[in-house]
Q: What sequence folds into this?
């Protein structure tokens, strides 16, 4: 069953149409990836799902509710959390405070405590640096913190925007491993990546986006093997 | 030595008023990057509210102070909602000009409604002077200092410990990320205006009591001085605003004590010019480097 269904979604920036009647869906338990070059509209789609941007047309259906008019806090409350591109952790707040902020809308103290342990378990480096100012973390650590913060909201669907961008190769592998763990523990993942090879390798399904349109879709394996995809995005 | 200490006491009580006002400037700037030039007029509204409830309803000091804080908090929220919120996504200069317009509206509106005459503030408290080691301290000075410090501590607790306070900090460093974790930006901004305006309201009632006179234009000069105090401490920084307020207050009384009363306002502006030339980020400000 589709957890998230995007139908004929269009988004404009002024007169420029960044996303043109895009259709895709994410089923419960999947990792779905949107790949495409810079400017293809990937981030715009995620921001629209999260309620930061308003679509000019089309619908976004999540758990059978149309959410394209919801405010962002209502969308977070419904179970969709985004890890934004460039991480956007809160500098000046400690690692622990950043994680607490992730649970901003939750009231179940015990559940929050459990999730703290879960996040520290998954990202031991955050536990080590728990009382440090988040701005002092390395890029990879900040990415983990941003993911940890999103997980603190206990989302059903997590939206990841370029989690590997600007990271050292050793961190990139770690981040992709973690995405898999997140999925195995029951959170559905919508992943946006320029690192198409890595993204398709862990994704159940993928969509190729070009200048605001979906060009093709298929399972991760199919797309990895596709000649056009290889030429355009995998350097093959 | 005694004169120095005496002026220090005077400076501290005046400075705590500036500090309360500067906190409002700095919090609003921190969260929406707006210099709210109408802030000094909120302080005037607080003084008038205090005047009214003491005069008409025979409130004693504490109810007058608390009700002025509530009244000003509401006024601040309403002003933000009507004047600044529609301009949230406009260029910053538009909101700045609007703030100046709101300031004029409040000053002239109050002059129109209640006349521009100077009124004497009802004395709800007997003024007592104490002599401590040759330094004259009035009970009102002590009251101002203590109330201000208590309010600043409360503010710090609200910002550090409460959920709304944390939301304020999150919105001020990264509004987009704050939205993505479910923070309601509009509500957080309203809350910030409420807090800042409540402090201004308290300052207004206390200054009425201290100087014993109020008028619709009373907010102009203290408002600008408090703005200088906020810049001096480092705009956007809460400890900076408190520090800047005390520094400006002490500087002003020191200038008067040295016999340059005519220059007491000029000194403050000279400080502004110097700080902008030498250390634009303010005393406590630093150029923050972030990893990207």
A:
């Amino acid at each position: 069953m589709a957890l998230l269904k995007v139908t004929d979604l269009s988004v404009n920036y002024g007169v420029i149409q960044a996303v043109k009647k895009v259709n895709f869906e994410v089923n419960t338990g999947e990792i779905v990836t949107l790949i495409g070059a810079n400017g293809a509209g990937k981030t715009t789609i995620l921001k629209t799902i999260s309620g930061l941007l308003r679509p000019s047309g089309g619908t976004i259906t999540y758990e059978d509710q149309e959410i394209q008019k919801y405010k962002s806090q209502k969308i977070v409350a419904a179970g969709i959390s985004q890890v934004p591109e460039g991480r956007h952790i809160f500098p000046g707040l400690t690692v622990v405070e950043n994680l607490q902020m992730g649970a901003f809308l939750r009231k179940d103290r015990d559940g929050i405590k459990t999730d703290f342990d879960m996040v520290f378990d998954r990202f031991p480096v955050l536990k080590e640096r728990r009382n440090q100012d988040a701005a002092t973390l390395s890029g990879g650590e900040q990415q983990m913190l941003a993911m940890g913060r999103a997980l603190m909201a206990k989302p059903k669907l997590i939206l990841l925007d370029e989690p590997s961008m600007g990271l050292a190769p050793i961190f990139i592998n770690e981040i992709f491993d973690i995405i898999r763990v997140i999925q195995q523990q029951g959170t559905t993942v919508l992943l946006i990546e320029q690192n198409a090879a890595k993204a398709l390798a862990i994704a159940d399904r993928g969509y190729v986006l070009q200048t605001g349109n979906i060009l093709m879709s298929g399972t991760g394996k199919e797309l990895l093997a596709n000649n056009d995809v290889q030429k355009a995005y995998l350097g093959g | 030595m005694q004169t120095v200490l005496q002026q220090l006491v005077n400076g501290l009580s005046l400075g705590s008023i500036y500090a309360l006002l500067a906190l409002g400037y700095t919090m609003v700037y921190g969260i929406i990057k707006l210099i709210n030039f109408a802030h000094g007029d909120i302080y005037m509204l607080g003084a008038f509210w205090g005047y009214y409830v003491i005069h008409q309803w025979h409130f004693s000091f504490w109810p007058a102070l608390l009700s002025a804080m509530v009244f000003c908090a509401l006024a601040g929220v309403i002003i933000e909602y009507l004047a600044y919120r529609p301009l949230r996504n406009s260029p910053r200069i538009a909101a700045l000009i609007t703030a100046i317009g709101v300031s004029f509206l409040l000053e002239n509106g109050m002059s129109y409604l209640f006349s521009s005459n100077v009124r004497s503030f009802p004395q709800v408290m007997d003024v007592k002077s104490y002599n401590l080691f040759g330094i004259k301290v009035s009970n009102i000075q002590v009251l101002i200092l203590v109330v201000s410090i208590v309010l600043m501590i409360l503010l710090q607790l609200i910002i550090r410990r409460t959920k709304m306070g944390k939301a304020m900090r999150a919105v001020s460093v990264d509004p987009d990320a704050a939205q993505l974790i479910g923070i309601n930006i509009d509500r957080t901004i309203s809350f910030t205006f409420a807090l800042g305006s409540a402090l201004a309201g308290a300052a207004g009632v206390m200054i009425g009591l201290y100087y014993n006179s109020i008028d619709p234009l009373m907010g102009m000069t203290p408002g600008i001085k408090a703005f200088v105090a906020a810049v001096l401490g480092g705009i956007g920084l809460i400890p900076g605003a408190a520090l800047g307020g005390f520094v400006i207050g002490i500087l002003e009384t020191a200038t008067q004590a040295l016999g340059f009363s005519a220059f007491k306002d000029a000194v403050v502006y000279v400080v502004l010019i110097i700080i902008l030339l030498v250390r634009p980020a303010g005393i406590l400000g630093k150029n923050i480097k972030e990893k990207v």
